[in-house]
Every structure is written in structure tokens, then in C-alpha cells.
């Protein structure tokens, strides 16, 4: 279940407001002691996070299906995708929903019941946490999140059932602008930089194919430049994957198969990213799922 983007915070009766995390969405399946951690694009991540899998395997319910996000928190208690992607810090599973428990399918139960089932099933530990709820007033929750420097908040209808796909029963309000973009090419390096200069980015939407969203040339160290270039080199193709000409002379185009996490300050009037910074690759996202969203 995915949240829809809205432009500003709000307050609404029978809704709750949760912290928005900057990590990797994971469904955790438990059958007895057997545990599987599955990403949104159905990749098994159990071996990548063994401590989390072990902690879930020790939970008392015989069968469970949990929904949450694997994160790494910085020294201020803020989740940072870059830390998770680089393997720096303790990985923890923040759980915000329970879809199945001891033989009972809970997806058609209201969120209030599913959250109660979650809290009965999971005792917070070093590896497992409950999703944090902020103020009961959405505007106050947004202010709290802003002061702490969070990525944003998620608003959820307590009466909502769990449905696959994007929903208007879960809404997100962003504070810090950060999104996924498809890599469609790269430019030549200049000066002392090696491998490539900047990545050409795009999003799908509007029926026009891959829409060019600008380029990012910051956020790379030498190791990142080298490892990313090896991946890009295998995807080089003659034709541009973008629906319109990016206007970058001498650009090298690649098959649109890699997804990058990018932070930025805003969108320009021309539909390009302002002050983008590369944070890392996302192997848990299908490029075709990277679509244009407007509030």
C-alpha cells in the first residue's frame, strides 16, 4: 500500500500522522522460525539483514506478515537512505502495519485493528521498532517533523483497509525533497574527475515516455564514480531513452534500468531539478514505477 502525495499538512478526524522514513520498504513473512524479507520488487533481502530476520523469527506468533521499512538512523535519530545504502550504522526494521497473524488475514480490517495486532505481536528491540506516531493534529505533526529535520509525515485513515497500490487513504506530506529518478545517460567528465561528469535523470508519466528531469553532478566520491560507471557501461545504447532531447552535447545514453535516489531543493519552471545531489542507487524499485507525482 502506497501513500499519495499532497501539497500541505492538514488535520482530519480519525486520522493518524506518522514519521516518514528514508529507507527501503520491506514485507516480512514469518512461518514458524522461517523468515523472508522481501522488497517491493520481490527481491529476497533476508541474507542482507540477518539480525532483523533473526529477531522476527523469535516473535511469539506462529505466522506473521509485517509491513515496514529498513532504515539506518544518524546520530540525531533521523533515518538516512545514504547511510543504509553505504552500510554505515545499525540496520533496523521500523514496522507500521500487520497484514496477517496466526492464520488470520487482517487486510480487510481497519488500520486501528491492524496496528493493535502489530503491537501485540512485536516487542520493540535493538532490531525491531514500531513506526513512530507524531501529534494527533496533522499540522502540529508537520511542525514537529520540520523541527526535527525529518523527510516528511505520513497521514493514515484509521478506518482504512490495506489495499495494494497507491491510495488516498494514506497521504504523504514532504518537508525534505527527495525522490527516485531513472538514469538515462551521463555526460563526459571534465577537469580531474574520472569516469563521468553528471547523470541524466528522468521520470515516467503523462504518456510521453521517460521525461527528462535534469542532471546531477554532485554527491559522488571516487569509489562511487568507479562502481557506478561499471554498471552504466554495460547499459550503453545508441538511442536516447528520453521522450525529448536533453540538450546535452556528447552525452552517452544508457538503457533506463537503474534508479537513483536524489535530494534537491525544488523543481524549476522548466521542469528540471534545482540543486540535485546523488544519494545512491535503489535496487528495490522498478524503473517503470518511477512516475511523475504532483500533489
Which helices and strands occur, and which strands form pairs?
Layout: E1 2-5, E2 15-19, E3 24-31, E4 34-39, H1 50-57, E5 63-71, H2 81-86, E6 92-101, E7 104-105, H3 111-121, E8 128-130, H4 138-148, E9 152-157, E10 166-174, E11 178-186, E12 199-204, E13 210-216, H5 222-233, E14 236-237, E15 252-263, E16 266-267, E17 273-274, E18 277-281
Parallel strand pairs: 1-10, 6-8
Antiparallel strand pairs: 2-9, 3-4, 3-5, 5-6, 6-7, 9-10, 11-12, 11-15, 12-13, 14-15, 15-18, 16-17
Shape: globular
Uncertain segments: none
Would you tell me the structural class of the helices and strands?
alpha+beta
> Main beta sheet: strand number and arrangement?
6 strands, mixed
Give the proportion of residues in helices.
Answer: 10-25%
The number of E-state strands comes to 18
* Radius of gyration over all CA atoms, rounded: 20 Å
What is the helix/strand order?
EEEEHEHEEHEHEEEEEHEEEEE
Structure characterization notes:
The chain is α+β, with helices and mostly antiparallel strands. 16% of the residues lie in helices and 36% in strands. The chain contains 5 helices and 18 strands. The protein has helices spanning 50-57, 81-86, 111-121, 138-148, 222-233; strands spanning 2-5, 15-19, 24-31, 34-39, 63-71, 92-101, 104-105, 128-130, 152-157, 166-174, 178-186, 199-204, 210-216, 236-237, 252-263, 266-267, 273-274, 277-281. The strands form 4 sheets. Strands 3, 4, 5, 6, 7 and 8 form a 6-stranded mixed sheet that branches. The longest helix is centred in the last third of the chain and has 12 residues, at 222-233. The protein is globular and about 60 Å long. The model has no long low-confidence stretch (mean pLDDT 94).
Amino acid at each position: 500500500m502506497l501513500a499519495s502525495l499532497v501539497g500541505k499538512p492538514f488535520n482530519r478526524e480519525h486520522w493518524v500522522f506518522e514519521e516518514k522514513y528514508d529507507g527501503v520498504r520491506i514485507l516480512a513473512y514469518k512461518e514458524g522460525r522461517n523468515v523472508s524479507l522481501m522488497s517491493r520488487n520481490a527481491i529476497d533481502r533476508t541474507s542482507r539483514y540477518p539480525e532483523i530476520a533473526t529477531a522476527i523469527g523469535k516473535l511469539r506468533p506462529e505466522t506473521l506478515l509485517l509491513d515496514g521499512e529498513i532504515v539506518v538512523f544518524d546520530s540525531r535519530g533521523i533515518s538516512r537512505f545514504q547511510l543504509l545504502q553505504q552500510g554505515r550504522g545499525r540496520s533496523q526494521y521500523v514496522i507500521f502495519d500487520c497484514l496477517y497473524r496466526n492464520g488470520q488475514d487482517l487486510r480487510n480490517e481497519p488500520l486501528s485493528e491492524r496496528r493493535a495486532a502489530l503491537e501485540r505481536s512485536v516487542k520493540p528491540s535493538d532490531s525491531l521498532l514500531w513506526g513512530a506516531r507524531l501529534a494527533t493534529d496533522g499540522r502540529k505533526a508537520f511542525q514537529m517533523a520540520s523541527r526535527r529535520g525529518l523527510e516528511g509525515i505520513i497521514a493514515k485513515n484509521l478506518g482504512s483497509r490495506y489495499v495494494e497500490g497507491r491510495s488516498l487513504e494514506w497521504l504523504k506530506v514532504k518537508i525534505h525533497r527527495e525522490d527516485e529518478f531513472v538514469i538515462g545517460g551521463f555526460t563526459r567528465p571534465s577537469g580531474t574527475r574520472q569516469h563521468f561528469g553528471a547523470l541524466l535523470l528522468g521520470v515516467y508519466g503523462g504518456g510521453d515516455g521517460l521525461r527528462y528531469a535534469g542532471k546531477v553532478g554532485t554527491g559522488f566520491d571516487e569509489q562511487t564514480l568507479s562502481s557506478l560507471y561499471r554498471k552504466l557501461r554495460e547499459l550503453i545504447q545508441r538511442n536516447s531513452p528520453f521522450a525529448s532531447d536533453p540538450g546535452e552535447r556528447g552525452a552517452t545514453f544508457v538503457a533506463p534500468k537503474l534508479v537513483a535516489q536524489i535530494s534537491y531543493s525544488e523543481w524549476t519552471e522548466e521542469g528540471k531539478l534545482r540543486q540535485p545531489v546523488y544519494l545512491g542507487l535503489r535496487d528495490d524499485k522498478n524503473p517503470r514505477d518511477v512516475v511523475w507525482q504532483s500533489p
